[in-house]
Amino acid sequence: MQPTTDTERPRFQVPLVDISPYVGDGSPAARARTAAAVDRACRTVGFIQITGHGIDPTVAEGLAAAIDDFFDLPLEVKKQWIAPPGINRGYTAPKSEQLSLSLGVAAANRMNDFFEAFNIGVTAADHPGLDLPAGDYADNIWPDGAGPFAARTLAWFAEAGRVARVLTTIFADALGLPAGWFDAFTDHSLDVLRMNNYALPPGDIELDADLTGMGEHTDYGIVTVLWADRVAGLQVLDDDGRWHDVLPEPGALLVNLGDLTARWTNEVWRSTLHRVKPPVVDGRIERRRSAAYFHDGNIDAVVSALPGTVPPGEEPLYPPVTVAEHIAGKLAGSRQLVRNTRAEREAQRVITAR
Ligand SMILES: O=C(O)CCC(=O)C(=O)O
Ligand SMILES: [Fe+2]
């Protein structure tokens, strides 16, 4: 048999799925079509582009303006909003994190990632009736008090969170689970919005260096809703170990599954490896912005393989894990540069792709 050449391979594509039947009151047939399309995408690519999400374009424009206003500030000013170690909030300066350490593999170029970021999240005060750990559900850090940055990012946070919940409603149908199955795992979900800015001034670039905007990783939680500029950089790994550029269609949001969903489905659905490698043209990096809404589940939820996902006679690929343990190991890796030793399966995929 002849080896397959690149031209014979089906082109790598992130499927486009219209989720409007679940955002509005779609017919059972329309919902079933959406659920089937989501199931196909989750089994094969682990990334989806969604349309029909119902987010008003002005909310996305507000998010983009907030990102621009904040990251335009001088580095020394932004640094005052760095959170204490272990608190997943506030500012991250360029070259202070390594995402590949979240799955236990040091960056191939031995350099930290050059993205800068700002995180906000669900706080303990959002759930006054529950005694949630103050460190995980930490207060937000607002650079301008209750000013436009807070208003705009919180508006996006609410909408992205709504979309994440629509997605878990679809997931329950697509996986043949009872309606509302995810609710018990997500009613005080540990959600974080991470706004990323990829921009190094020309003087800061070593042209021949192997520059990494954000190292290869899988996302940690249930599902991520990603707003991104239509600028190259985001790359997704396929089954043959090749990286593919992914740009969202105009108006579409990217969605990708995290590790907890891969664990629940015993990898029937994928938590796909991705990274950000912006092209360097004439010594310049084209600026790229993104905002990832991580829907990570209740801190005290226990995640183990769903019935029917483990073939008879086989063991589940992963032991049960609490959201707390899983997320703590990942964040210690990426943010505190402590290699995560509990992600062997993911680490192996990274090493194979190198
Ligand atoms: O910038 C991007 O498009 C991806 C960001 C990402 O993967 C993340 O924040 O986990
Ligand atoms: Fe990611």
TrEMBL record:
The keyword Iron applies. Residues 189-297 form the Fe2OG dioxygenase domain. Keywords: Antibiotic biosynthesis, Iron, Metal-binding, Oxidoreductase. PANTHER family: 2-OXOGLUTARATE (2OG) AND FE(II)-DEPENDENT OXYGENASE SUPERFAMILY PROTEIN-RELATED. Pfam families: 2OG-FeII_Oxy, DIOX_N. Pathway: Antibiotic biosynthesis. GO terms for biological process: antibiotic biosynthetic process. Gene3D superfamilies: B-lactam Antibiotic, Isopenicillin N Synthase, Chain. GO terms for molecular function: metal ion binding; oxidoreductase activity. This is 2OG-Fe(II) oxygenase. The keyword Transmembrane helix does not apply. The lineage of its organism: Bacteria, Bacillati, Actinomycetota, Actinomycetes, Nakamurellales. It comes from the Bacteria. Belongs to the iron/ascorbate-dependent oxidoreductase family. It comes from Nakamurella endophytica.
